[in-house]
Amino acid sequence: MTVEEIMKPYPNLVFIKTRFHIENQNQLKDENFIFEDDTPELKKNQTQIMPLSITDFPGVLASSTAMEAGAWAITICQKQNWEISRENIEACLANLEMDF
What secondary structure letter does DSSP report for 40? Predict the structure, then answer.
């Protein structure tokens, strides 16, 4: 799936690079985010933020944007008939990270 294709079924889902692993909702702050050219606008109380830490996935996130990495992970989850969840997204990216 491409980033554009993700936006159709998941219009409020935004993958965003973070400076460190986000543990709780209180850490979802602009100063912890790394905004990229393809990062959609964040809308308070509407956007579901899926944080992707550059410390957890350095190789993956050095070679793609968070939205591209998220699109790839959603594609893998769908092929495996897995729920689209943070845990499964991170599992997909961890496997890809091992290839780097």
Answer: P
